[in-house]
Amino acid sequence: MTPTPPSLSHEQRVEASRLAVANRRRRAEVKRMVKTGEISLEEIFDLAKSEECVAQMRAYDLISALPAIGEVKAGRIMKNASIAETRRIRGLGPKQRAELFRALVR
């Protein structure tokens, strides 16, 4: 038996949609800041502790947003750090984080 989602009123659906859009915009803003070098990898992990929407960002998206790292290099870094493509920032273990810092922070 599959669980059924809760019934939401129109107002609740509108509010949930508004919140989802705000979260996507915030993640896009953070990725832009990473791309331009305004924020470091260490600051991203600190930010993820206080902002749920940043903690929900996929690790692959974060790594591929870094300057001079494309999709292939991001995939290689994740494979070397034993990080699944679907892993979120909050789900990274201490060893995975250490491996990311070793590979990315120069």
Number of helices, where a helix is a run of at least 4 consecutive DSSP H or I residues: 6
Shape: globular
Helix percent reads 55-70%
Largest sheet: none
Residue-averaged pLDDT:
91
Strand content: under 5%
Low-confidence stretches: none
Question: What do these coordinates show?
Answer:
The protein is an all-alpha fold and 106 residues long. It has one domain (14-104): Orthogonal Bundle (Helicase, Ruva Protein, domain 3), CATH 1.10.8.50. Helices cover 65% and strands 0% of the residues. It has 6 helices and no strands. It has helices spanning 10-36, 41-50, 52-55, 59-65, 71-80, 94-104. The chain is globular, with a radius of gyration of 16 Å. The relative contact order is 0.12. The mean pLDDT is 91.
Gist?
With 106 residues, the protein is mostly helical. The chain has helices at residues 10-36, 41-50, 52-55, 59-65, 71-80, 94-104.
Q: Which keywords apply here?
A:
6 helices; Helicase, Ruva Protein, domain 3; 106 residues
Q: Which secondary structure elements does this structure contain, and how are they paired or packed?
A:
Layout: H1 10-36, H2 41-50, H3 52-55, H4 59-65, H5 71-80, H6 94-104
